Structures are given as structure tokens and as C-alpha cells.
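User: Please write out a complete single-protein record containing the residue sequence and its fold in C-alpha cell form, without commentary.

AI:
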Amino acid sequence: MPGAEGHPLVGRSVPDYELEDGSRIADHLHEGRGLLVRRSEIGVAGYDDWVTAIATAVRDPHAPGSLLVRPDGFVAWARDPRGAGGEELENALKTWFGPPLNPPAGPRGSLAKSLP
């Protein structure tokens, strides 16, 4: 259901945003993997086999600051540039890709450390 998980893009087809690195969202969806777009280079431990994480930003000023896109091109999670979202990202990863292969050690086993 669109917007059910907080951000209005969740559950909708991802727009083909232009990214700061010159590529477009669609350029990264050809391998049938999930896609995490955010400014930070922090990866998603345990999900490397299913999710490609790229450290760049969307050029559209009205776009979310971070996006998790399912392999079918629908938005699984999004957050605005100033919004919180580490736990929500963790939940979206678990929902769409299952439990991590090698859960990280540390407090509560957090997958998505702090988001910038």
C-alpha cells in the first residue's frame, strides 16, 4: 500500500531520479538486486548479496535523502534528508530481503548504523 510505511514513496514505483554521480536510478536496477541510495558510504552488513549500496545523492531537491528500492523497482523505504530512519531501514531490509546472512556484532546487532 503506497505510503503505508511513513514516506509517501513507499510502495510506489521509484521515479528515475538523476543522481549526483551522473547516473540514474534505472542504471542500477538491471541486475535484479535491491538498491540503497544514500550519501553515506555505510553499507548494509549481511545484505551485500541482495542489495547494491551506492553513496551518492539524488539531484532532485524534492526527493528523499535516502531510498531502498526493491528489485522490482518499487520503493521499500525512504526518508527525508533530515529524518531519522536507521531502525526503519533495518525493518525494510528484513521484510523484503529476509534476515542478514552474517548479522553484525554490536549493540542490538544494528545493521543500519547512524544515517547522515
Q: What stands out?
A: The chain has a mean pLDDT of 82. The helical segments are 86-97. Strands lie at 34-38, 51-55, 66-69, 75-79.
